[in-house]
Automatic annotation (TrEMBL):
Official protein name in the record: NAD(P)-binding domain-containing protein
Signal peptide: none
Entry keywords, A to Z: Oxidoreductase
Source organism (scientific name): Stutzerimonas azotifigens
SUPFAM superfamilies per UniProt: FAD/NAD(P)-binding domain
Pfam families for this protein: Pyr_redox_3 (PF13738)
Gene3D superfamilies, per the entry: FAD/NAD(P)-binding domain
Record flagged with keyword Oxidoreductase: yes
Coiled coil ranges: none
């Protein structure tokens, strides 16, 4: 980029899956655009995931429509395979990506249309800006985290493998897909693991010979438009690790993991847990069983020939940590030397200095079309539906947003016939002069 103010129709910020999907649809519609990525293409999948992470959904499902993975379609792609896939996808249609360019500030122009986009490599002008900076931007460690010296504490975004941790027991706080998979990996590596379990959904990995991604598809649940009120803090515990298996907390407890309720507070070397473990596990079971019931009803209704699976309804006996849950743990006495905070992420829109946020600081938009004309979002959780933040879901949202951009361009380009004739006669002599 030069110091001159380059003008471009649409700037897309971020070249993860959301930015790449956006670019594909803009390209199809012939809309001039540029993707600016501060790191590398698909950086989150390269450096923001632990070493053994695989996709939560099978390869036939967790992908864009225009390309298949080069692995068994019922298998689960590893994080590097996903990053390679996204890179190859972007190459496939020559996505105009500039890597290593950070967007520092976007402001609305005064006295002319569009926005000024200030980057680490100079400024440019854009009629439109699409934020594709990801749903999981800043790892969040809650304020209750203890200040204890010598206690190794990291967010799940900075966990890579068991060898990274000091010897000794570990407390994993948070039991969504990240927390439960990391806790399982640490248990298998021979560590003593405490897992703090909050409210969660836990769909079966597969049931009656079909993956849960398929069930959510045929049951129309990926298309649910809004999260149920009060369920904002409910995570989904699902895993594609080791070929894929259902997350069953009671089995993990049988295997030696100590489950505890929500982590409440730390004082000196003591941590206190809420007395909600049994309730959280019961609600997770209810969510699991509800999907089995819905699947059975679907099979009956449609006369499908899918094998019965009664074993899926068997419940293992409660281990002592569930029957008599710990309310308090002395970390020093228990030999806990590390804490992994699998406690989610926050957004960072400090670079987007336009009027398109609600009072809570969240993007204000309708299916990705920002409140501020010319600003768009893709990749946000629940942007249009449950599938919105996932690889395959973002592609469909990006198509809608690209179509909205095309519509806005039409309005912007409109001239009354007499104005258009006037314009043409003003520029024709110039063109002829050049020719
Ligand atoms: C642990 C984990 C596992 C997941 N597993 C799955 C899964 O199996 N299947 C699935 O479908 N989904 C999964 N997801 C959800 C989702 O698919 C990923 O989070 C995915 O990375 C989101 O893609 P994105 O393009 O929206 O954002 P990102 O991949 O985060 O991409 C955003 C890009 O924007 C860049 N950027 C940010 N700010 C700027 C700036 N100011 N200037 C320039 N560039 C900028 C970043 O460098 C980044 O490359 C998972 C998420 C997590 C956290």
């Amino acid at each position: 980029m030069t110091d001159e103010m380059t003008e471009i129709d649409t700037v897309v910020v971020g070249a993860g899956q959301a930015g790449i999907a956006m670019s594909e649809h803009l390209s199809r519609l012939g809309i001039e655009h540029l993707l600016l990525e501060k790191n590398r293409v698909a950086e989150a999948w390269r450096s923001g995931r632990w070493d053994s992470l695989v996709a939560n959904g099978p390869a036939w499902h967790d992908r864009f429509p225009g390309r298949e993975f080069d692995i068994d379609p019922d298998g689960f792609a590893g994080k590097e395979q996903i990053a390679d896939y996204l890179e190859a996808y972007a190459r496939q249609f020559n996505a105009p990506i500039r890597s290593g360019v950070e967007v520092k500030r976007v402001t609305r122009n005064v006295g002319r249309s569009g926005f000024t986009v200030e980057t680490s490599q100079g400024a440019l002008l854009a009629q439109r800006v699409v934020s594709a900076t990801g749903p999981f931007q800043k790892p969040v460690i809650p304020a209750i985290a203890p200040k204890t010296e010598g206690l190794y504490q990291i967010h799940s975004a900075h966990y890579y493998n068991p060898e990274q941790l000091p010897d000794g027991a570990v407390l994993v706080v948070g039991a969504g897909s990240s927390g439960v998979q990391i806790a399982d990996e640490l248990l298998r590596a021979g560590k003593q693991v405490y897992l703090s379990v909050g409210p969660h959904d836990r769909p079966p990995r597969a049931y009656r010979n079909r993956d849960f991604c398929w069930w959510l598809g045929v049951l129309g649940l990926w298309d649910t438009e809004a999260m149920k009120p009060g369920r904002e803090h409910v995570t989904i515990a699902v895993s594609g690790a080791r070929g894929g298996h259902t997350v069953d907390f009671r089995r993990l407890a049988q295997a030696g993991m100590t489950l505890v309720g929500l982590t409440e507070r730390f004082e000196d070397s003591k941590v206190t847990f809420k007395p909600d473990l049994a309730e959280n596990l019961d609600q997770g079971d209810q969510n699991y069983l509800a999907l089995l019931d819905a699947a059975d009803a679907y099979v009956d209704r449609n006369g499908l020939d899918l094998p019965l699976e009664p074993a899926a309804r068997e419940r293992v006996a409660d281990a002592p940590c569930i029957a008599q849950p710990l309310r308090e743990l002395d970390l020093a006495a228990a030999g806990v030397k590390s804490i992994i905070w699998a406690t989610g992420y926050a957004a960072d829109y400090s670079w987007l200095q336009v009027d398109t946020f609600n009072e809570g600081g969240k993007p204000s938009h309708q299916r990705g079309v920002g409140k501020e004309p010319g600003i768009f979002f893709v990749g946000l959780p629940w942007l249009s539906r449950r599938g919105s933040a996932f690889i395959w879901g973002v592609w469909h949202d990006a198509r809608h947003v690209a179509e909205q951009i095309a519509i806005q361009r039409k309005y912007q380009q409109y001239r009354r016939k007499d104005e258009a004739d006037e314009f043409a006669s003003a520029v024709t002599p110039l063109n002829q002069a050049r020719a």
